[in-house]
Design brief:
single chain; about 350 residues; alpha/beta; Aminopeptidase; 2 domains; 6-stranded mixed sheet; 3-stranded mixed sheet; 11 helices; about 35% helix; about 20% strand; binds zinc ion
Length: about 350
């Protein structure tokens, strides 16, 4: 899904670049290398673009140099960066899309539920299942939760919806990106998480249901699954244990531009950016800022530190979003890899905070 509440105009007129960061003064190395750093930061565009810059974007020289300093004290402490199997994740999207349109209450929806749970055999899986009364009638809703325990007290939650848009059920909408990519990357996270107790926080993956509106997006008509789950977790005390919550939504676009979503607390926004820097993929993050309504909102309202990892620029001017054009050919394994590795690294950084 997702609904842009504010923050950008119709043609992306408020598009902006983040200011060039030159945090030399904040690091010990920076103090020692202050003079050299000052020169480097003021060099302007005469330096060669970073090899990490993708899609033709040029990383400012200051960032290039900063990244090399970070990498000496960053990943070196923790070993190699996380690496998902992006081809496998992409294959999951392919298989999910093959079920066809998957709105709440449909036969195909049931098939995707079974598809997801069939990949979680042996894992600790729970359902948050209920019936919701909507303007289009009653629907069964099922959030699927898989829990991967850690040694540290606290939980990191990753959400991604698997339903497709109900109003688009008759136009052949298969939601390769919107619903497909989120479900698939969570399945790949499960592959990365299972089998050993994490040396860090517990991680809970939630395939959320009823994210989409059944008629027209509003506070009432949207986020059916997460509104229920947030309320349930508030009552049973789970919310207090959540250190951070991530939403994955529409993360497969070949031309990947993750928004700087403004409901997230700055420390969490920065953490994800730093994780992206460690992988050299920061050019795909935060090209613009927007307040977006998505599955994190019921948790944001309850004070849970939450971030929406979403690319709401799907095709020029978002033309593929919520159309029959949301198909596999628009997506790439590389985008799943960028988001997947960055998210897993962000979690690893959280473990050490
Ligand atoms: Zn959608």
């Amino acid at each position: 899904m997702a609904f842009v509440k504010s923050g950008r105009g119709g043609n992306g007129g408020d598009f902006f670049r983040l200011p060039v960061r030159c945090p030399w003064l904040t690091s010990l190395a920076g103090l020692l290398l202050f003079i050299l750093g000052s020169i480097a930061c003021s060099k302007g565009s005469s330096s060669a673009p970073s090899p990490a810059a993708e899609n033709g974007a040029t990383t400012p020289p200051a960032q290039q140099i900063t990244t090399s300093v970070v990498s000496e004290s960053g990943p070196g402490e923790t070993g190699p960066l996380p690496q998902i199997d992006s081809k496998r994740a992409f294959q999951y999207i392919k298989e999910i899309v093959a079920f066809g349109t998957r709105p709440m209450g449909s036969e195909n929806h049931k098939k995707v539920e079974n598809y997801i749970t069939s990949h979680l055999k042996g894992d600790q899986v729970e359902d948050d299942a209920f019936t919701v009364d909507t303007v289009e009638g009653k629907f069964p809703v099922r959030n699927i939760i898989a829990k991967y325990p850690g040694t540290k007290d606290g939980i990191i939650v990753i959400l991604g919806h698997y339903d497709t848009n109900y109003p688009l059920r008759n136009i052949g909408f298969v939601g390769a990106n919107d619903g497909g990519s989120s479900s698939a990357i969570l399945l790949e996270y499960a592959n990365q998480l299972r089998g050993k107790k994490r040396d860090g926080y517990s991680v809970w993956l939630v395939w959320t249901d009823g994210e989409e509106a059944v008629r027209e997006w509003s506070e009432r008509d949207s986020l059916y699954g997460t509104k229920h789950l947030a309320e349930k977790w508030e009552k049973d005390g789970t919310l207090k244990k959540i250190k951070a919550l991530f939403v994955m939504d529409m993360i497969g676009d070949t031309d990947l531009n993750i928004e700087k979503e403004t409901h997230a607390p700055p420390w969490l926004t920065d953490l994800v950016y730093e994780a992206a820097e460690r992988g050299g993929v920061q050019s795909h993050f935060y090209g613009r800022a927007a307040a977006i309504e998505d599955d994190h909102i019921p948790f944001v309202k309850r004070g849970v530190p939450s971030i929406d990892i979403i690319d709401l620029d799907y095709g020029y001017n978002n033309v593929f979003h919520h159309t029959a054009q949301d198909t596999l050919d628009k997506l790439s394994p590389r985008s799943l890899e960028i988001v997947g590795n960055t998210t897993l690294e962000a979690i690893r950084m959280l473990d050490r905070r």
